[in-house]
Amino acid sequence: MSILIAQYRGKSLISKAIKWQTRSVWSHSAIVFPGYTLVEAWHIGGVRLVRSDNLIECLKANHSEGTEVDLFSLELEEDKAREFAISQVGKQYDYSLLFNFLTREPAEVNNKWICSELVAAACSKGGVDLQRLPAQEFSPQLVGISPLLKFKETVCLTKKT
Description:
endopeptidase fold (from Nostoc punctiforme), 6 strands, single chain, alpha+beta
């Protein structure tokens, strides 16, 4: 079954730093399951689940107005990926791994997540390895350039009218 990978082109200072350090247009990754259920590792509160009646509202969830989001489809075993991703909800954000990206130090496996690491791990549980790397080595750039993703569209997050 097909899911969506959301690749955010963040506008905040931290997003700009992530994009600069990873040489990317993307600063954040999330996974969207059918029925507008989004799972993401967020710096405030850790791994969270967002449900909405429509895709744009689902993608917004505290992201800055005007942020562009590139959407990619991916075929995988959706039930296995969803089960894994939802089982991670409530786990902490991995600030140490984010620091490792900035310093380019080797990453360690722990029970915390950054956004791209969580997306890569969920895809792997769904039977698809986005790249030939362990999940903790993934940046939003490496998620977005996976040849397995099929670009769908770019949306802009605006206020609800």
